Amino acid sequence: MDENKVKRGGISVETAHIFPIIKKWLYSEKDIFLREIVSNATDAVTKLCRLSSLGQYDSGDEKYSVKVILDKEAKTLTVSDNGIGMTEEELEKYICSIALSGALDFIQKYDENNQNNGIIGHFGLGFYSSFMVSDTVELITRSFADDKALRWVCNGAGEYEIDAAERGEHGTDVIMHISDEESAYLDENKIKDILEKYCSFMSVDIYFETEGDESDEASQDASTPINETSPLWLKNASDCTEEEYAEFYKKVFHDYREPLFHIHINADYPLNFKGVLYFPARINEYESYEGQVKLFYNQVFVADDIKEVIPDFLLMLKGVLDCPELPLNVSRSYLQDNAYIKKVSSHIVKKVADKICSLCNVDREKYEKIWKELKIFFEYASLRDKKFYDRVKSAYLLELTDGTYMTVDEYLKCCEETHKGKVYYTNDKALQAQYISMFESEGAKIAVLEHQLDVQFISMCEMNDSEIKYARIDSDVVDMLKSDEDSESNEGLVALFKDSVGNDKLEVKFEALKDESVPALITLSEESRRMEEMMKMYASMGMNMGADFPVEYTLVLNSNSHLIAKLDSVNQTDSEKAKLMALEIYRLALMSQKRMSADELKAFLTDSFKLLGML
User: The sheet that has 318-322: what strands, in order across it?
Assistant: First the structure.
């Protein structure tokens, strides 16, 4: 060959070689073949309706539909439509040539400027999916513009014949002769299940018939469309009732429980997608969230797995999304990661945040009722996405110990004088009852934050807003609990408690508390306690963080307590009794701060009985 001469050509594919690949590998799920053929039939009707709207065809009183007909005896599955049909030239161009799309040609010719045209098929391979389950496929078609009907028949090797046929009206019949290996597709229930999954919301009425079955039930099924042509997501939110949203949810997801709330999405240019999302209810806090967002493409079901479209912190949502501009590969089952998808995802996050804020501001009563179920999601999503947190932070509710709710802003405004920018909280109402009682007696409001995630969330809140601090009620003795009297340290009692507890490094300090009935309190700084809880969380996850974090408790003795005064007196006359009393006071204070271990509880009971014996 001459070195200076360039040879050009096109790669050729032999039909005998490509057909076995189509039969086995065209789609990841074999059931999709029926979706593709029904989609083509729907396209055929949509095209004819478009021509009618342009004045190029007089449809009169025609009622358009697609019929799926199962004939077990003949071993055939037929998809029949009364749509646009094909001429002989179109048949040879689009059916006899793999991957040439009649849909694309139609759009370029008639709907060039209308991207949301409702036409489904963008790929020419869809028709050939019929060979995945058939050894022979027969096609009978008649164009709306031609009186001549044609029959095309092709075997599994790709060898076809075209001849004249009889068909009374325009449209196309695709007759699939099911192979022996795929006889499962002659089962009536299986076909119904496939149609329900993939075709429930296609835009043309679809009917399912079974040849030879003359029962009343079959007659009723044949006269009732299996699909809903105007699904909820295509309507305006203002035109939908709460009952319709609830009914749609139960129908699509077979969930008898009412969802907490719904979000109707109708994104216009440049995103152009619609949908309805639901936040599902849970039976209890231990039930895991298992969301399911069904992805549609011009009302045709594509996939349940939409992780590329929905952020992971929203995967508990249930709903439907219809994205007619979504970039899909040939199987329509996998999404490509691109800028459009990221914009869709961001829009969904924004709509969820807007809905939460709207519920808080407009329907506060309902919002408070669902808050316990919503809270964990709210905190987790905020931790995962700073933008989401910025949008919803004003809607974060604090549940108070009296069962009421306040936003953080409402809380701080209500307690402006006493709290001075701090949110006081408890993580165990029963264990910290003594502290709660002391705070509430001074008119303080106590929030309840009892989950591990709460600590991470409030730490993030403090990082983003330095003017707000969260403090557990046992983290320090605050000014509102102190009396106006000065407290004096008693070195003799300090030494007594250190000796009784057996810890010479125990920090002991005196405070004059308003509540004289409380002799002593255990406190732990907020920073130390959060670090301790974080280390415990890592340990529970099997993560070794090295040496244990040193936790320094402070024993606060109430100088206004009569019991502390009596202890001081006893210490001067009966050191053994004073030592037991000090140990008892320490352990009682410890019990109001944390739960005792088995050994600690055993020792506490033994010494308590011993002390009672001295009385």
Answer: 261-267, 273-279, 318-322, 292-297, 300-303
Rounded distance between C-alpha atoms, residue 308 and residue 538, angstroms: 29
Query: Beta partners for 275?
Result: 265, 321
CA distance 123 to 333: 13
pLDDT at residue 425, as a whole number: 93
pLDDT level of residue 602 (50, 70, 90 thresholds): confident
- As beta bridge partners, residue 406 has 398
CB atoms within 10 A of CB 300: 23
Q: For residue 168, is it left (φ>0), alpha (ψ between -120 and 50) or beta? A: alpha
> Which of these, 566, 586, 103, lies nearest to 324 by C-alpha position?
103
CA 350, chain centre distance (Å): 14
| Cα distances (angstroms) measured from residue 310 to each of 78, 260, 274, 291, 523 | 37, 19, 14, 11, 44
* Alpha-carbon gap, residue 189 to 369, rounded angstroms: 42
Strand 447-448 to 422-426 pairing: parallel
CA distance 481 to 558: 11
Tokens representing residue 356 in the block: 């939460």
d(C-alpha 481, C-alpha 559), whole Å:
13
> CA–CA separation, 8 vs 315, rounded Å?
51
Q: Which two tokens stand for residue 606?
A: 């033994």
Using alpha carbons, select from 148, 307, 583, 30 the residue that is nearest to residue 591: 583
Provide the angle, in degrees to the nearest 10, between the axes of the packed helices 452-464 and 526-540: 130
Whose structure tokens read 């192979």? Answer: 179
SS3 for 240-289 is CCHHHHHHHHHHHHCCCCCCCEEEEEEECCCCCEEEEEEECCCCCCCCCC
pLDDT at 403: 94
Euclidean distance between the first and the last CA atom of the chain, given in angstroms as a whole number: 117
Looking from the CA of 345 toward its CB, the CA atoms found within 13 Å total 19
Q: Measured between alpha carbons, how far is 103 from 37 in angstroms, rounded to an integer?
A: 13
In Å, how far are 237, 282, 301, 315, 320 from 232, measured between CA atoms? 9, 24, 15, 21, 10
Query: DSSP state, 529?
Result: H
- Residues 56-107 pLDDT 10s: 888 888 899 999 999 999 999 999 999 999 999 888 888 887 654 444 454 4
SS3 at position 304: coil
pLDDT bin (cut points 50, 70, 90) of residue 327 is low
Nearest to 225 by CA among 211, 209, 240, 238: 209
* Cβ–Cβ < 8 Å for 84, 170: yes
| Distance of alpha carbon 80 from alpha carbon 67, whole angstroms | 5
As given in the structure block, the two tokens for residue 122 are: 């963008």
Q: Give the separation between CA 263 and CA 355, rounded to whole angstroms.
A: 7
